[in-house]
Amino acid sequence: MNRHQMTTLRNAEVADLLDKLGDILESGGEDRFKVIAYHRAATSVRNMDEAVEQVWKEKRLEDIQYVGQGIAKKIDEYLRTGRLEALERIKAKIPPGAPKLMKVQGIGPRTAYRLSHDLGITSVGDLKSALEAGRLDPEFGPRVRESFLVSIEKLENFERRMLLPEAEGEFQKLQSYFGALGIEVMMAGSLRRGKSTVGDIDILSIDPRAIDAMAGCPGVAQVLERGQKRTSVKLESGVQVDVRAFAPEECGAALVYFTGSKDHNIALRNLAIGKGWKLNEYGLFGSGGERLAGETEDEVYRGLGMRHIPPELRENRGEVEASLRDELPDLVAFDDIKGDLQMHTTWSDGSVDLSEMAKAAKERGYEYIAVTDHSESVRVANGLSKERFRRQWKEIDRLNDELAPFRILKGAEVEIKSDGSVDFDKAFLDEFDIVGASLHQNFRQSAEKLTERAVSALNHPSVDFLCHPTNRLIGRREGNPIDLRRVIAMAKETGKTLEVDGQPQRLDLDDVWARRAMEEGVPIAVDSDAHSPGELDNIGYGVMVARRAWLKSKDVMNTNNLRRLLNALS
Ligand code: DGT
Ligand code: CA
Ligand code: CA
Ligand code: ZN
């Protein structure tokens, strides 16, 4: 285990403790602000680069963002004694399960207490079956019952959806399992469309053995459905996999159908109906029932009078009409990317040093990267002062000599402060090759204030682009309620760039907004936001978003070669 992992472990332990305290306080009906304070402090501790124990030894706990005196005392007690008196005390008073029940919308602390203490319901699953069986009818009226059930379903869906890397990983494991048995399989569903979250994994094969093989696959926890040509299973990881077998002449139609989206399918089917034909997962059939197409996707689309539509566009957002007019965009591809404009090193919160990061990027065949460590006001991320940036630049100059013609751009991810100003004065900012701006703090402002911050940062003459504009963290935090129309308008007016951050939990801007930006002529930077060499791969997820946003190579800033990029930045 390396030092970084040790740090993370101990920090995670303290963070979990603070989260637990927050949950428990919440189910005990504690003041919301106090609860939020615990969760915010937990997040700071979890994400900080320094070891919390080290900070504690140096008596600097209160320097951690969102850690005030009260929380510092609790961390201190825990690190000294290994336990937390307050936690033990409250735990004894709160029935098990109450915190979990409160995830269901409409269930507050009191109801949670009653359900779990008086009625013995200790999980969301318990609650669902009790509601469905009518066992709680004496407690809740039909409207409340219904709203609980809706909320439980949303919760289940939310918790079931995977981020792209997880879904890809599961698919690859299955693909090699099938491969070892000599069974060829194809990816379908939202995973093939490259959607940022994936509900379940859809697999097709023209080999009928795929069905038995799936049911017999190690790691299957439960076979949900089993037929001759289809099966659905649940893996031990909780992931659902649907497998379907088709005849070779049906393969293309099946791929179109199960790749979806459902709305895309409906648009295609209506097109067929309009001609008096029929389209389903088995093929395209003429008015006499004769088979017109079905073996390949190409054939199906051609049969309908259009060009093949890339899976990423199949959301019924105009792609069918565009294909009929032969006006589909020539989408940006992974190989078009010439460099990466956001990444971090050990100078701030990255896990490897600058030279290792640069060499890893060069090895990928990039022409350039921008190193964009955080600026001084992000203390939890070890943000750099002017003086430290200047030292970093010396290292960059040295490395640029060593690695030429590969080029490391002097960059920064500068913090947008609460009032919309950014770290550092203009003269200093102008010494950078490229400046990204982003906000990581004070999200609790009004939508207008948050929008104002983003807009005024874009309006700063030294800022080149806005990083991860909404700050969403998929599955954990909704994006800030900023007015992206205004942000796009300002980027357009000032000729600035907006980012698609490729971290799988960010993917921010999303496909819909990146497309709007492109339609306004605003360039998009697709970046990895890597904090380690492996994370340079994130750029692939960013490219997926860009494709889903209809972006062509020329719409993406970092498809430019170095010379053109520098021109665009100056
Ligand atoms: P997910 O799994 O929620 O991320 O999204 P998908 O798109 O993978 O949806 P899924 O797994 O339920 O179904 C796979 C594809 O099958 C879907 O994209 C389109 C097709 N499909 C499923 N149900 C229907 C339907 O009722 N009508 C039509 N036309 N297509 C459907
Ligand atoms: Ca699916
Ligand atoms: Ca499915
Ligand atoms: Zn950031």
Radius of gyration: 27 Å
Number of domains: 4
Number of helices: 24
Query: Main β-sheet: number of strands, strand sense, barrel status?
Result: 7 strands, parallel
Tell me what portion of residues adopts beta-strand conformation. Answer: 5-15%
What general form does the structure show?
globular
* Mean of all residue-level pLDDT scores: 92
CATH-defined topology of the largest domain: TIM Barrel
Distance between the termini: 44 Å
* CATH architectural name of the largest domain: Alpha-Beta Barrel
Q: Reading side by side through the largest sheet, how are the strands ordered? A: 11-12-13-14-15-16-17
Provide a brief overview of the structure.
The protein has 570 residues and is an alpha/beta fold.
